[in-house]
Amino acid sequence: MARPFVHPSTEDISLEGVLYALADPHRLAIIRRLAGCSGNMNCTAAAPCELPKSTLSHHFKLLREAGLIRSERHGTQVINTVRRDELESRFPGLLATILKSADAVDDPGT
């Protein structure tokens, strides 16, 4: 049986942990994909395709431990969602600002 995922409580999410997790371009790309979808997304769909599975597992673990995503097992898949409401209550406007800034870097004409 697979071990359950551990997610920090909203009160235990730290600003340093969130910023550290999002400082990596691959993890930021994962969060952008998850935040851009209307619902949940499995690891394969959310992740950059050029990374090995072990590296992806590490990135998802760091995002989960930082409190940015919630992961749930559904059969053989792991489904991830951004903990948007919890992050918003802990750090109002932070995630939206980071995502908007990342979009502006990708599209400097805005």
Q: Can you give a write-up of this model?
A:
- With 110 residues, the chain is an alpha+beta fold.
- The protein has a single domain (13-102), classed as Orthogonal Bundle (Arc Repressor Mutant, subunit A).
- The chain is 52% helix and 13% strand.
- It contains 6 helices and 3 strands.
- It has helices at 15-22, 25-36, 43-46, 53-65, 84-90, 94-106, and strands at residues 41-42, 69-74, 77-82.
- A 3-stranded antiparallel beta sheet has the order 1-3-2.
- Strand 2 (69-74) and strand 3 (77-82) form a beta hairpin.
- 22% of the residues are buried.
- The model has no long low-confidence stretch (mean pLDDT 87).
Write the layout of secondary structure elements.
Layout: H1 15-22, H2 25-36, E1 41-42, H3 43-46, H4 53-65, E2 69-74, E3 77-82, H5 84-90, H6 94-106
Antiparallel strand pairs: 1-3, 2-3
Helix pairs in contact: 1-4
Task: Name its key features.
Arc Repressor Mutant, subunit A; 3-stranded antiparallel beta sheet; single chain; alpha+beta; 110 residues; 52% helix; 3 strands
